[in-house]
Design a protein that fits this description.
Elements lengths: L6 E6 L2 H9 L8 E4 L7 E4 L1 H4 L9 H7 L4 E3 L3 H18 L3 E5 L2 E5 L10 H18 L5 E6 L2 H8 L7 E3 L5 H5 L12 H9 L5 H6 L2 H8 L1 H11 L15 E12 L2 H21 L3 E11 L4 E12 L2 H12 L8 E12 L22 H4 L10 E4 L3 E9 L2 E5 L10 E5 L5 E3 L5 E5 L9
Parallel strand pairs: 2-4, 7-8
Antiparallel strand pairs: 1-6, 1-7, 2-3, 5-6, 9-12, 9-18, 10-11, 10-12, 13-14, 13-17, 14-15, 15-16
Length: about 450
């Protein structure tokens, strides 16, 4: 722990839903649910208007519809969320060079590295207040809740106390007074199973855990877990704010708002992505040792798997074979909505085989039906569209050969609603986030 409250945690409020409300004036002040819209869908984020009805993240869309049938259920627009996130991170980096993003919608900031006159409570409170205003201005109205304290743990606790659009500064020396009455589940690493184990042993609050000996907690939870929880129960956390490291990589990813469920199709898509990455590596006269795949499941859970090779490569078959093997480590039973392949650990040379053997024969690209290679479904709820006569808008709904569009943008008031045939050539689906390639950029880690 530090002597001054110099660790700031910022958390954007109901991020995905807030971006949708910002960009769709007719949804402002209304319940909005972002996530899977189908029968197996899962809620990624619910607006505060929807939370009043008990809708929450990770709830099935079916239950969410039952609780709040009048909500707008949208499939999500990750390109818009990434853009807003980058705007926020830029504001944070203007304040301090030490910014540690945790996901698209939250980050730690080290105020001790900022150019501040002092780190007194009044100063950091004013800085945090100005920061929230700067975020709102940079993003066109998104709000954030901020906590400031002497450690990462306490700053995260503080940012949860006054949601949405709040600010809490924990003065040095008051940490334990704040923590003691709280349930043990506020401590990172205490999930439902651990909380139940602690409850069964008589530990319901942080104060209960604080009064226990470390040996007792270790016996209950194991050495590593028990030691860490015991320290946090005493408010002890000396983890530094680690600035985001530049991840030198070349990658490509595709988003599919209709779940891809066939394993052969997934492997074929990865093979095509690997070929794209290999072409870009060759064009840059580079190679890489670490192959990574990114998989976003039907419920918005995102996983990544990596393998480091013995030597750098730019060969599409090597990258593809490694990517397909990594896919076998991910449970994709429920289907996937995003796949990506990347190569990092870049070098400007390729080590030849020690035994001089040739690469495997070229593997033909899997022949995929057109519907599989462009799995973004036509007219997903909330998707951006443009009409040659009426201009930009978004998909209100579709079915039976008809798509209904509300024509409005973030800069307009609520717009009119009109319906068209799904094959109307004047109506075009915009999808800037479906196929993305990146250099030197870390993978997104959305935390809805």
């Amino acid at each position: 722990m530090r002597r001054e409250a110099s660790v700031l945690h910022l958390d954007l409020d109901a991020f995905f839903a807030a971006v949708e409300q910002r960009d769709k004036p007719s949804l402002r002040g209304r319940p909005v649910v972002v996530g899977g819209v189908g029968g197996r869908g899962v809620v990624a984020t619910a607006s505060y208007e929807a939370r009043v009805f008990g809708v929450r993240s990770a709830m099935s869309t079916r239950e969410a519809r039952a609780r709040c049938p009048h909500a707008a259920f949208l499939s999500g627009r990750f390109h818009a969320y990434r853009t807003a996130s980058r705007q926020v991170m830029a504001v944070l980096r203007d304040l301090s060079p030490l910014v540690e993003p945790l996901s698209l919608d939250e980050a730690f900031v080290d105020l001790a590295a900022a150019d501040l006159p002092d780190l007194g409570v009044e100063t950091v409170t004013a800085v945090a207040r100005d920061l929230r205003a700067a975020v709102q201005e940079a993003t066109g109205g998104l709000t954030a809740t901020v906590g400031v304290a002497t450690s990462k743990f306490m700053a995260k606790i503080a940012s949860d106390l006054d949601k949405p659009d709040g600010l809490t500064v924990v003065a040095p020396g008051t940490e334990q007074d704040l923590l003691r009455p709280m349930p043990v589940a506020v401590i990172p690493g205490v999930g439902p199973a651990t909380a139940e184990r602690l409850r069964a042993s008589g530990f319901r609050t942080v104060a209960d855990l604080e009064q226990a000996s470390e040996a007792e907690v270790v016996r209950l939870l194991g050495k590593a877990h028990g030691h860490g929880l015991h320290r946090l129960a005493h408010g002890l956390d000396d983890r530094p704010v680690v600035a985001e490291r530049e991840a030198k990589s070349i990658s490509v990813e595709d988003t599919y708002a209709e779940d891809v469920t066939d394993r052969t199709t997934m492997e074929g898509l990865l093979t095509r992505q690997a070929a794209t990455v290999a072409r870009r590596l060759a064009k840059a006269r580079q190679s890489g040792r670490t192959v990574t795949i990114k998989v976003r499941l039907h419920d918005f859970t995102t996983s990544s798997r990596s393998q480091t090779l013995d030597a750098p490569t730019d060969h599409p078959q090597v990258i593809a074979r490694t990517a397909r093997a990594l896919l076998g480590e991910v449970d994709t039973t429920g289907g996937v909505r995003l796949l990506g392949v990347g190569v990092s650990g870049l070098a400007d040379w390729i080590q030849e085989s020690l035994f001089g053997d040739e690469h495997d024969e070229e593997e033909p690209l899997t022949e995929l039906p057109l519907a599989e290679t462009s799995r973004r479904p036509a007219w997903a709820p909330g998707a951006d569209v443009v009409h040659s006569e009426h201009g930009p808008g978004w998909v209100w709904g579709s079915g039976r050969g008809v798509v209904t569009v509300r024509f409005e943008t973030a800069e307009t008031g609520p717009g009119p609603v009109r319906s068209f045939a799904v094959d109307d050539p004047a109506l075009v689906l915009l999808d800037p986030g479906r196929h993305e390639e990146s250099d030197d950029s870390p993978a997104d880690n959305p935390s809805p």
